[in-house]
Amino acid sequence: MATKVAVIGGAYTKFGEHWDKSLRDLSVEAGALALADAKLEGKDVQSLYIGNMSAGKFIGQEHLAALAAEQAGLNPIPATRCEGACASGALAFRKAIMAIESGRYDIVIAAGAEKMTDIKGEVAVSTLMGAGDQEWESAIGLTFAGLYALIARAHMSQFGTTREQMALVSVNNHKNAAKNPKAQFPFEVSLEDVLTSSLIADPLRLLDCSPITDGSAAVVLASEKIAKQMDNPIWISSCEQASDTLSLHDRKSLTEMNATKVAVKLAYQQAGLSPEKIDLAEVHDCFSINEIIAVEDLGFCKKGEGGKFVEQGKIAIGNEKPINTMGGLKGIGHPVGATGIRQIIDLMTQLRGKAGPLQVNGAKKGLALNVGGSGATSVVSILSNE
Amino acid sequence: MATKVAVIGGAYTKFGEHWDKSLRDLSVEAGALALADAKLEGKDVQSLYIGNMSAGKFIGQEHLAALAAEQAGLNPIPATRCEGACASGALAFRKAIMAIESGRYDIVIAAGAEKMTDIKGEVAVSTLMGAGDQEWESAIGLTFAGLYALIARAHMSQFGTTREQMALVSVNNHKNAAKNPKAQFPFEVSLEDVLTSSLIADPLRLLDCSPITDGSAAVVLASEKIAKQMDNPIWISSCEQASDTLSLHDRKSLTEMNATKVAVKLAYQQAGLSPEKIDLAEVHDCFSINEIIAVEDLGFCKKGEGGKFVEQGKIAIGNEKPINTMGGLKGIGHPVGATGIRQIIDLMTQLRGKAGPLQVNGAKKGLALNVGGSGATSVVSILSNE
Question: Average per-residue pLDDT in chain A?
Fold first, then answer.
């Protein structure tokens, strides 16, 4: 029987455009903050995993895990980069959990980092298409906004989801981000702001889209033996991963993500929980439509009713199922490799009761959904403070 | 106590310039061959890890693990890419082992793949520099041949290692590759051939350097429970990983690799073995000098005596410590993400007694050393047929 694993500390850098900091600076900053939060030192860390999607293309640097270990003074511990597009952070998190479950290590760092603003915006957009199918999607000029626009159109057609319902996702997430000092966009937006923002890929507008961001995040994980000696460990009830086709055209449905459905089913089983027991969730709102699909696929409402769920305000703090309580990808920003770890940190903060004006009162169970590309990789993690 | 883990099958594609096959074709081919070797089907596989260094830069494709799972019909199993430069394959192997040790899975594929010949040679060389330090090495124009030339000069200066001794590494490995039908260069080279080949980075010449290669490799790993039901499982006695600085200038020594020394010490401890007990080894001869350093760091001879060890023919099949018995990176080729898995397959073949004209008679224990970059990541695996 494998040990239980807990998150015993975590932190992320300010997300934004860091023209004065390199990827290595950001990685070390998050790691140091996470260790301080866990009241540990570098010498206590036995292994390191880092999620990163495309440092090779963004800044010409592969081999990032060894570099992060070096820069943080952690050599010679094993250091491994995990990549699964925008789910890279959650993959690093899951591999770190399994490293502890294997019995090899007691204290492991799972980090994520991406430096996206050192190249031109259009090059960043084509780099991100590395998450899609190069032969069938990138090569014909599709972008991720284009892919999610196809998904949005299908959802609108099939379920009557409205432009306004999608916009309300961004309104909710920006409202939360306004109170998160680490957010790239710490301000509110109105429904009208979203609906009148520039058209990117019809029906998606600028304020439906998560931004290009620099940032890093890190959590410290520990075995049960170590975690029990710590203040306020947050237990990992489950962490499950699944895959689907890269190309949208190969999917059975455009309006649900099978990888998410498979992963969340396993995650609920493993945690012995049902969707009603989840007090809050961090989901992958890379585009507003994806939060609507997420609340459906995670079982928070019936299929096709995600738009109404959002419209009825159920995702707001204080209501039925608070979603992206710190601002989500839309408000906090989306340094792709870091996002999966940032979600875990936001859950940790909530489950510790330390979310200040964004606190979900009495939160005991939190769920994170990190999605790679248009859904070819999904990771669902459930955390608990009990 | 974690389960024991065994390699129960494995195969690699022909290594070479595959202008008629894509990375996805190669990945599926190796996976299918490996499953056939293990007498299993795709439905038996529970999780997938793939090592790949730079598909983002080589072919514009990240998110490779989900793509490989899709192309092989393995969705929705968890699929994760691991990256640590030229050690990416061994990182995938090690994560697959830990996935089984965690108790989550019984049958896992560890693969590796790289498609390097779709871009111009000089672009491939700069892409490979992603394995070094972008700010301190790549940006000033260093190449990997240049980095290893610095290492070679230091070794020659410090220990009197000769040009001829380095050349004899290539002679040995090509002699073996000549009998390996999967090798990119299945022919012998003479000492004179090496010594008179084009100068690349003094003192390294063309025939000291491993080539740019397309290829893929896959192994099937199983828990003890499953492996015991199989014919001829090859047991993983240990698999250990360590890290060092990316930049050469930050190392204490240019003539040894500390990551290798740390990893091999742990690997011998875990396996309860000493260097004398190893019957053959697959080591990382990306450049000839690195095989000389490897035999020293692995404890097969004293520090500084690696050149003599090679010169005395001790690395030949039939002699004291056969090295790179199937041809090594130099003779078989070096599709960077695949090499770490290819090494495991070559050990497996030897330990099964199926190496034909290249067989090391009575081989019971084999060791693989996969190195990332100029030594910032090292993974040492010890396999046994007992």
Answer: 97
Among the four given CATH numbers 2.40.30.170, 3.40.50.150, 3.40.250.10, 3.40.47.10, the one describing domain B5-120+213-234: 3.40.47.10
Query: Sorting pLDDT into bands at 50, 70 and 90, what band is A32?
Result: very high
User: Could you say which of A99, A241, A245 has the minimum Cβ distance to residue B78?
Assistant: A241
Size of interface A-B (CB pairs under 8 A): 212
B338 touches chain A (CB under 8 A): no
Query: pLDDT for B210-230, tens place per residue?
Result: 999 999 999 999 999 999 999
As a whole number of Å, the CA-based R_g of chain A is 19
Structure tokens at A145: 């906004």
Shared fold status for A5-120+213-234 and A132-211+237-384: yes
Q: Which residue of A has its CA nearest to B2?
A: A102
Is the Cβ of A168 closer than 8 Å to some Cβ of chain B?
Answer: no
pLDDT at site B64: 98
Give B-chain residues touching A95 at CB under 8 angstroms.
80, 95, 98
- Report domain extents, chain A: 5-120+213-234, 132-211+237-384
CATH superfamily membership of B143-211+236-384: Thiolase/Chalcone synthase (3.40.47.10)
A130–B61 C-beta distance less than 8 A: yes
- How far is it, in rounded angstroms, from Cα B156 to Cα B153? 5
Predicted local confidence at residue B20, as pLDDT: 96
Domain at A132-211+237-384, CATH from 3.40.47.10, 1.20.1250.20, 3.40.50.150, 3.90.180.10: 3.40.47.10
Q: How confident is the model at residue A59 (pLDDT cuts 50, 70, 90)?
A: very high
Partner residue facing B82 (CB), from A81, A129, A244: A81
Half-sphere exposure at residue B165, Cβ-oriented, CA atoms within 13 angstroms: 23
Do residues B381 and B93 make contact, with C-beta atoms less than 8 angstroms apart?
A: yes
Average pLDDT over residues B323-346: 98
What are the tens digits of pLDDT across the range A287-339? 999 999 999 999 999 999 999 999 999 999 999 999 999 999 999 999 999 99
Average pLDDT over residues A187-197: 98
**What's this model's pTM, rounded to 2 decimal places?**
0.98
The DSSP string of A247-280 is: SGGGSS-SSS-HHHHHHHHHHHHHHT--GGG--E
> Inter-chain contact A104–B85, Cβ cutoff 8 Å?
no
What whole-number distance in Å separates Cα of residue B165 and Cα of residue B306? Answer: 9
Answer yes or no: do A258 and B76 touch at CB < 8 A: yes
Q: Is the pLDDT of residue A43 over 80?
A: yes
**Residue B1 predicted with pLDDT over 70:** no
Establish if A82 touches chain B: CB-CB under 8 angstroms: yes
Q: Is A370 on the interface with B (CB under 8 A)?
A: no
Residue B130: list chain A partners with CB under 8 A: 55-56, 60-63
A62 touches chain B (CB under 8 A): yes
Distance (Å, rounded) from C-alpha A12 to C-alpha B80? 24
How much is the average pLDDT of B173-187? 98
Please name the helix (run of DSSP H) or strand (run of DSSP E) that holds residue A372, with its range, or none.
Answer: strand A365-372
Position A216 confidence tier, pLDDT thresholds 50, 70, 90:
very high
Q: Residue B115's closest CA among B158, B60, B74? A: B60
